[in-house]
Design a protein that fits this description.
The structure is a single chain. With 84 residues, the chain is of the alpha+beta class. Helices cover 36% and strands 25% of the residues. The chain has 3 helices and 3 strands, in the order E-H-H-H-E-E. The protein has a 3-stranded antiparallel beta sheet with strand order 1-2-3, with no helix packed on it. Helix 2 packs across helix 3.
Length: 84
Amino acid sequence: AIGSLVPVTAADAADPAAIARFAKWREAGSVGFPSRFPVTLEGTARWAQKGLLDVADRVLFWVNAADGTPVGHVGLFRLDVDRK
């Protein structure tokens, strides 16, 4: 295996290191988003809970290298498991 996908969970939303990683990645990739705003740790933590974990049709995975180091993330939006 060259890596793995690991679901983002409530534990990640409460983990300062995970929130800082998301914020850093958002800031670094801001030119690729249609909306731009100041990235803060507080706002990122709020997004992780309210904009991701509390939304039934979204799922996000850490993309981890073979050694377990997170190197990115990938997600599904508007996921409808019932309709496959």
